[in-house]
Specification:
Residues 1-25 form the signal peptide. With 268 residues, this protein is of the alpha/beta class. It has a single domain (31-266), classed as Glycosidases (TIM Barrel). It has helices at residues 5-17, 41-48, 83-92, 112-123, 144-155, 175-190, 214-229, 259-265, and strands at residues 31-34, 52-54, 70-71, 95-97, 128-130, 162-168, 194-201, 234-239, 252-253, 256-257. Helix 4 (112-123) crosses helix 5 and helix 6 (175-190) runs parallel beside helix 7. The longest helix has 16 residues, at 175-190.
């Protein structure tokens, strides 16, 4: 789970005209981003106007957390359920993200039973706690998340909100509505706040990722964020991901913002 010379020249022209945007664009509390460590990540978090971020771990690692930007720790998988990681999470934030894509072999890869058995240790941190973030099928009856939520309810375990991942394979103008339908279905099923912690347009249906054109991704950023900001049950969302060097849907190459990053930066 590119900025061109022309864009650089445009940025210089805007600076000379005094029309360049502020270093930290004003934004709402929902807008965030996932971020792996790379040179310039801290500066990019400020530039894109993220109010929060996470890095799939219990600490900020080599990313220096910018002032005014919240870090949200995660307990990634079964091996991370240990005193050190749990203590790190307690120190790092007030909210904790649960296991990352436990329904995928290449990710946390956990049975529902194993996740439930470990869950009390996450709850004992006292942090506000998000369910394991499944890769897909969050609203499917009998699916991984459905089994987990039923098991948690039966055992009296606390789950405060539902993190979700979504990658749209339809690059048309309907993508935003498709995302909305998925979020609504999950909310209708569990009646808990939603955090969309990974999302972008990427088609994984053939096994080899297929990506939209830059303009299609830009259009989706604009439509999806407008939609997300209008859903009362969506508390937060995070674009996947900050670094374009790490993934084609990323927003920055080093500290150079690409066109999709510019579109996400403009979101309020």
């Amino acid at each position: 789970m590119r900025t061109s010379t022309r864009l650089a020249a445009l940025g210089l022209a805007l600076t000379l005209l005094g029309a360049v945007q502020p270093a930290h664009a004003a934004t709402g509390p929902r807008k965030g981003v996932s971020a792996e460590a790379f040179s310039g990540a801290s500066q990019d978090l400020i530039d894109v106007g993220a109010s929060w971020y996470y890095d799939w771990s219990s600490t900020t690692g080599s990313i220096t957390k910018p002032a005014g930007v919240e870090f949200v720790p995660m307990i990634w998988g079964a091996a991370s359920v240990n005193p050190t990681e749990l203590a790190n999470a307690r120190r790092a934030g007030s909210t904790l993200l649960g296991f990352n894509e436990p329904d995928l072999p290449g990710q946390a890869n956990m049975s529902v039973q194993r996740a439930l058995d470990l869950w009390p240790q996450l709850a004992d941190t006292g942090l506000r706690l998000g369910a394991p973030a499944v890769a897909f099928g969050g609203a499917t009856p009998g699916g991984w998340l459905d089994q987990f939520m039923s098991g948690a309810a039966a055992r009296g375990y606390r789950v405060d909100f539902i993190p979700l991942h979504w990658y749209g394979g339809d690059f048309s103008a309907q993508a935003s509505n498709q995302l909305r339908g998925y979020l609504q279905a999950v909310h209708d099923r569990y009646h808990k706040p939603i955090w969309l912690t990974e999302y972008a347009l990427t088609d994984y249906s053939t096994g080899t990722p297929r990506y939209p054109s830059q303009q299609q991704q830009i259009d989706f950023v604009r439509a999806s964020t407008a939609m997300l900001n209008g859903l009362s049950f969506v508390e937060r969302y995070a674009w996947f991901t900050l670094s374009a060097n790490a993934h084609p849907t990323g927003l920055y190459q080093g500290t150079a913002r690409n066109a999709v990053g510019t579109a996400y930066r403009a979101v309020r």
